[in-house]
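Input set for joint prediction.
Command: fold jointly, output tokens.
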Amino acid sequence: MKLLKKTHRMFKLHRIFIKQDLKRLMEYKIDFLTGAVGMLLAQAINLFFLSIIFSQIPSLDGYTFEQIIFIYGFSLLPKAIDHLFFDNLWSIGYFIIRKGDFDKYLTRPVSTLFAVTVEKFQVDAFGELVVGIAFLCVSIPKVNLDVNLINILLFITAVFFATFIFTGIKLITSSIAFWTKRSGHITHMFYMVNDFAKYPTTIYNRVLSFIITFIIPFAFTAFFPASYFLGNGNALFNIGGTAVMAIVLMAVGIFVWNKGVSSYESAGS
Amino acid sequence: MRKILRIYKPFTHAGFLLAAQYRVNFIFFVFGDIIRCFISYFLWHAVFTSGGNNTFMGFSEVDMTVYIFISFLTGIVAYSDGSYIVGEEIRDGNIAMRLIKPIRFDLAFLFQELGERTVTAMIIFVPMMAGVEIYKFVVTGAVGFNIWCFLLYLVSLILSYLINFYFNVCYGYSAFVLKNLWGSNLLKECIVNFLSGGIVPLAFMPAGLGFVLNLLPFASLTYIPVMIYLGMYDVPTILMSLGLQVFWLVFFIFLQRIIWNACVRRMSVQGG
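tokens >
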């Protein structure tokens, strides 16, 4: 009962913060719209790039154009959801700690991690979300996919856990800033690896495959779960692996975060 | 000329120190971005393996790999922060401080950025060039390094940077109207990257579109220098391309002057 009350309070707070953030956004309407168009255009260009490649070859490493589009579309969903709710973690590594602004979260009657993430509702993410869904809708009729209840549930599970792989990696790397004051560049370096997940892992050499599967496990955010729905691999490894990786990364992330908060020293003036 | 150098040299020095201070950040950033090159490399490798042909629209696998890495290098070295910095100064009103000093606005920025670019080039240029040449040697078994192509590439690269700088400053002036540049910068970067051949060589575009894109200033930013380095252009084409670059540079310098003169008169500083 207590837990339920607590969750309810968190959701209520979240709604208030989202409303606040949307008001801030309305201040710069045109700027936001051009940004959203930019995001859409970037994805359209990627699609054009893939279509140039597939105009010359029938399949890429055994994958058809539609299958690649499916994997690509899938990769955008967890990325967008993480982007939407947990974008403020970037600011932790870039300037919040360095400028001493972290103090304000310590004074709030909610956990610091919640206070930080709830502060920003990154609407740019809708661009990726829309494109991701569009790619999936276009490709699903052509890739021989069984749309049934089990698959839909597995799909939602996979996207849910894949989101926390993104969040977990951001959480661990931005927590480093508690000790070094600044870690945005480290987050950037790890985060960029996610682009590997858009294409079949089989095109990379063995060392790279190993890294993106087990060390910086972005392969579980897109290629592994998506290829399960395409009929390759088994649910235990492809979807279960996603869940395990997400849980491990989040556990490590929250641990490092709490350690970091307890050794946080406010900066200068 | 000498007077200009004397006045603006301290800016270059300041830019140099600034960039040197943040070199570790820069290295991490570049490392993150190089990951993209490797993704492209493996993707193209798979394309060449799957296609069964030795060439893809006139590019061999070695050409394509060199294209990926050299266009990345060109993009990093010829990068200009102009639109962010100019936009930010206009937004926060700091531009007023620039106006009361007896120096030219654009030159002060240019010389400061030249200092920063020097550090960037020192860190990244030699290792990447060497890497690309070693790759070429290992794959083809012959020394493919052509000193003339390399020297002409350097000329083209410098022109590319200057065009990029003035283009970005012109763009930054739109903050006089828009006040906030985050969104439009995102849109601009996306379009420029595509039109300059940063994603695929312009030669892969449909013929009519490709011809127009070759003439636009964006091709001067990445595509022309890289094609010169690759040795894909014959002498008349090289001369014509360099001429085109000079034309666009002069064009943007004048455009920048005109916009600046028009805007400064009706500028309003917020806060500051």
